Hints:
- One of its GO terms (biological process) is anaphase-promoting complex-dependent catabolic process.
- Pfam families: UQ_con (PF00179).
- Residues 13-159 form the UBC core domain.
- The chain is of the alpha+beta class.
- 51% of the residues lie in helices and 11% in strands.
- The protein has helices spanning 3-9, 12-27, 111-123, 133-141, 143-157, 161-205, and strands spanning 33-36, 44-50, 61-67, 78-81.
- Helix 4 crosses helix 5 (143-157).
- Residues 1-5, 163-167 and 169-174 have low confidence and may be disordered.
Amino acid sequence: MSSCSNVENLSPQVIRQVARELGELCSDPPEGIKVFTSDEDITDIRAQIEGPAGTPYAGGLFRMKLVLGKNFPSEPPKGFFVTRIFHPNVASNGEICVNTLKKDWKPELGIKHILLTVKCLLIVPNPESALNEEAGKLLLEQYEDYSMRAKLYTDIHAKPPKASTESGLTSSLKGSIEGPMAKKHAGDKKLIDKKKKEKKKVLKRL
């Protein structure tokens, strides 16, 4: 069933409630979390979570989405990381396993509570309910290896756009500007030296 169908199946009251909460989250977001809404489909909620300091995810920006089903809020939404992440509670398809979205769900819990819970999951993973068994095993038995792998994923997949853009510009500048500019400067220097020699010759004649 498509997201559009979910909108049609949600009651006007639920739609108003979700729209109100999303508006509040956009105007007053929790620390380290940004929420993006779509006027076309209110059941497809996008968010961006900053990797918490002191974790292997620090320095990364992790995009995720919440999909509200037709029975929301009686049933929990489904949560997915759109950004690739190495984490015990995140499956290869990005699905997030957290009790708030499973057995501990209550209709009165809001979107903000879910986002804060997912952020906490980055700080304190739960290897006992691992969707990524390799990550869960490393977390329990070889934390350093787990941390290194998680940091690697963060560096590759979750670096902020600004940083990647700047690094891209830097490398671009080095390749496309420094090269030609260096040649240009070298050419300018030769031209200046040539003019200096010609000037000396003229002075000698005088």
